[in-house]
Every structure is written in structure tokens, then in C-alpha cells.
Amino acid sequence: MLPSLPPALAEWLPLTAWGVVSVFQGVIWMELKAVETRLRDELKASEARQVKRTDELEADMNRQMAEFRADNKVLGEKIDRLVEFLMTTRQI
Prior knowledge:
The chain contains one helix and no strands. The protein is mostly helical and 92 residues long.
């Protein structure tokens, strides 16, 4: 059989145990908040990178579309000249 604790120690021990548990809960809560903040910051940075990349892709697409339009215009003009040439050669 275990000896009983002195009355002062018996009163102090549960309070100390609750204090230790509370400290550990506080440490864990602070660590969770730090992880949450870090993840939120990483998410915002990732979103910013995605927005930047999307803007770059959109600008590149617009540039390519402008080039295609210019190329189509030149091609259309060449086809018009070819049709005119063929029409004049057949009339002769």
C-alpha cells in the first residue's frame, strides 16, 4: 500500500498539474496560431504568384493574337492581289 501524501502536498499537487496542463495548452495553441498564420501567408503568396502568372499568360496571348491578326491581314492582302492577277490574266 502506498503512503498517503501530506495534506499540503495533496492540495498543491492538483493545482500544479492543472497549471502544467494549462501551460501546455497555451503552448500548443500558440504553435497552432503560428502554423495558421504561416499557412495563410503562404496561401496569399501562392495566390499572388498565380495572379501574376495569369496576367503574364494573358499578355502573351494578346500579343500572339495581335501577331495573328497582322499576319492574317497580310495574307488577305496577298490573296486579294493573287485573285486580281488571276482575273486579269484570264480576261486577256
